[in-house]
């Protein structure tokens, strides 16, 4: 009896390990699909096929060959649950980190200003959300097998966002008040729009699709009598709108919107406004066409200035925007010319934004003038110090490798 029990435990353990490996492989492939679709290199079809095979393997391990879930209590499989809400996912989407979340919850996380993956804490290189059709298919199949159905959604559906008639009417009313002759009414409307577009994907979608919304916000920002609160609210509403994938193109194609965000970077009445303007440029720059326009319109210089002189949160927003812009190769020379490397080195010497600064240096490491600038400003000593501290703290090997490699590069320049 004991032998049978031990054999069963060993078999269960082996199955668990195999299932874990299959899940990790599937996650790796899903991340690869996201990266390949962003790069547009045409290889994602092969990766989809690999992911399909990994999905089949994971399904066999999880459900068994006869398709029935081998669980005593019939609980929902853990990988069907959103890591944020712990509820079964209705609309699973993949972040650039490769982790999958339910769309409403990850959108709320991002709209709160977070720029990391909630589960892995990895800094996100893009805020693009890619539908995870593989996991969605598994969830649908599991629900069908167990006689379950996802709770029905109330209201109309607008590209996945829930919309009610009352919400439409309320948002229309708020947008009209942005043009009110009453200063207090205008301020209250902007503040309410800021709150709604931060919390509700449906509000971001509706406001973004209203042809009068962006012009009204830009009119506020171009006003000569703009006060600090109204400027901050208007910039933040544009930031919130830009989080929604469907709005990135329309906002990014509006040159006046980009120019006013750049102006807010430079002359923002308070630091929160300047940081939110940088965050808006970061989210808009997930599209390559926007990356080009943002730099052409002159955003790099004020972003570098904010990276050096802003508050810590503003520095982070500026650094994220610069990094995203520099993923487009032609923007790197502009960043190098504006002194990004020197600013990054000074931040690292202060122990600030070390990971972000290293990421920027990695993008610019091929420029000889960058290597020479770092060599003259004590870059070798700084990087070697980071290597020693990283080794002592057991920090990721990749950071130590990069510092050692880069210190060698600039030391020999």
From TrEMBL:
InterPro entries from the UniProt entry: ARM-like, ARM-type_fold, Armadillo, RING-Ubox_PUB, Ubox_domain, Znf_RING/FYVE/PHD
Query: What keywords are assigned to this protein?
Result: Repeat, Transferase, Ubl conjugation pathway
Annotated protein name in UniProt: RING-type E3 ubiquitin transferase
Top-down, what is the taxonomic lineage of the species of origin? Eukaryota, Viridiplantae, Streptophyta, Embryophyta, Tracheophyta
- Ranges for region Disordered: 1-21
Query: Biological process GO terms, please?
Result: protein ubiquitination
EC numbers on record? 2.3.2.27
Enzyme class (EC, first level): transferase
Going by the entry's taxonomy, the superkingdom of the source organism is recorded as Eukaryota
Pathway membership: Protein modification; protein ubiquitination
Pfam families, alphabetized? Arm, U-box
Q: Catalyses which reaction?
A: S-ubiquitinyl-[E2 ubiquitin-conjugating enzyme]-L-cysteine + [acceptor protein]-L-lysine = [E2 ubiquitin-conjugating enzyme]-L-cysteine + N(6)-ubiquitinyl-[acceptor protein]-L-lysine
Ranges for domain U-box:
75-149
Q: Where are the ARM repeats?
A: 212-251
Hydrolase keyword on record: no
Enumerate the GO terms in the molecular function aspect: ubiquitin protein ligase activity
């Amino acid at each position: 009896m004991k032998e049978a029990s031990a054999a069963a435990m060993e078999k269960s353990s082996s199955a668990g390990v195999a299932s874990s490996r299959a899940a990790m492989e599937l996650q790796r492939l899903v991340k690869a699909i996201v990266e390949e679709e962003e790069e547009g290199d045409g290889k994602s079809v092969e990766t989809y096929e690999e992911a399909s095979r990994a999905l089949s393997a994971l399904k066999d391990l999880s459900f068994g060959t006869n398709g029935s879930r081998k669980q005593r209590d019939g609980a929902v499989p853990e990988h069907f649950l959103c890591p944020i809400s712990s509820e079964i996912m209705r609309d699973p989407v993949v972040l650039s980190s490769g982790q999958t979340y339910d769309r409403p919850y990850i959108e709320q996380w991002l709209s709160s200003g977070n720029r990391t993956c909630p589960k892995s804490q990895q800094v996100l290189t893009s805020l693009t959300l890619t539908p995870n059709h593989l996991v969605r298919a598994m969830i649908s199949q599991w629900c069908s097998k167990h006689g379950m159905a996802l709770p029905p959604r109330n209201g109309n559906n607008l590209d996945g966002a829930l919309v009610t008639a009352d919400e439409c009417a309320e948002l229309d009313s708020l947008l009209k008040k942005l043009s009110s002759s009453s200063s207090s009414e205008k301020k209250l409307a902007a503040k309410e729009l800021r709150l709604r577009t931060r919390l509700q994907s449906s509000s971001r979608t509706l406001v973004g699709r209203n042809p009068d919304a962006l012009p009204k916000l830009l009119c506020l920002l171009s006003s000569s009598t703009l006060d600090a609160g109204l400027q901050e609210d208007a910039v933040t509403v544009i930031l919130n709108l830009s989080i929604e994938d469907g709005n990135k193109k329309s906002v990014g194609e509006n040159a006046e919107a980009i120019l006013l965000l750049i102006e807010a970077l430079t002359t923002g009445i308070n630091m929160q406004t300047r940081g939110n303007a940088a965050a808006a440029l970061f989210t808009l720059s997930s599209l390559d066409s926007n990356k080009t326009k943002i730099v052409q319109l002159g955003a790099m210089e004020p972003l570098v200035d904010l990276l050096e002189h802003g508050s810590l949160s503003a520095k982070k927003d500026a650094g994220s925007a610069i990094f995203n812009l520099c993923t487009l190769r032609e923007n790197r020379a502009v960043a190098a010319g504006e002194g990004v490397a020197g600013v990054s080195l000074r931040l690292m010497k202060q122990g600030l934004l070390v990971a972000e600064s290293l990421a920027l240096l990695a993008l610019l490491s091929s420029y000889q003038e960058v290597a020479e600038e770092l060599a003259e400003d004590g870059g070798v000593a700084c990087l070697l110090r980071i290597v020693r501290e990283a080794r002592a703290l057991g920090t990721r090997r990749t950071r130590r490798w990069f510092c050692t490699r880069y210190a060698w590069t600039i030391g020999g320049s």
